[in-house]
Amino acid sequence: MNMKHYCDAWIEEWCQENGWTDLFIERCNSYWAFPPGAVMPEPIPTQVLRVIKAEKGLTLEERYWSFTAVIATMIAAVVTYWLKCPIPLVAAFAFNAVTVAQLEVEDAY
Q: Where is the chain membrane-spanning (predicted)?
């Protein structure tokens, strides 16, 4: 599963502001468009994606998974106390580890 780290509207907004046209998404988190005056599309620069991410914050999907991880941890803590067994907390830790790894933004280029 790949988590979307950028909202398509954020990228479209940047393209319109900077004269890039015909935005298309090659795969999850890989955006291409035509720079001003260009005849071939180019990937949106990684530095630009980082700036957009810093300005806009988390996407709806990232917020959902973060919230789910927090709720799962709270439920696991209660169940661990109730059952006097650490397994639910261990399972929550494993789920959180995968979630945090998915939240990491990878540079595609």
A: 64-83
